[in-house]
Amino acid sequence: MKKMFLTILMATALSGVLTAAEASTPVASAATNAVATAAPAADAKKADPDLQQRVADLEAYVSNGTRGSDAADAKVSSKLDGTAGPGHNAWMMTSAALVLFMTLPGLALFYGGLVRRKNVLSVLAQCLGIAGLVSIMWWAFGYSFVFADGTGAGKVIGDFGKFAFLKDVTSAPNTNYSYWVSHNVFSMYQMMFAIITPALIIGAIAERMKFSAILLFVALWMIVVYFPLAHMVWGVTGLMNGVWNPDAKIKAIDFAGGTVVHMSSGWSALILCIILGKRLGFGKEPMPPHSMVLCMVGTGMLWVGWYGFNAGSAVAADGVAANAFMTTTMATAVASFAWAMAEYVIRGKPSILGFCSGAVAGLVVITPACGFVNVTGSIIIGVAAGLIPFFAVLKLKAWLGYDDALDTFGVHAVGGTLGALMTGILATGSVNANITDANAAAKANGLAKLVGNGLWIEQIKAIGITLTLAVVGTLIIAYIVKAVVGLRANEEVETIGLDLAEHGEEGYHTA
Question: Residues 180, 316: contact at Cβ < 8 Å?
Answer without folding.
Answer: yes
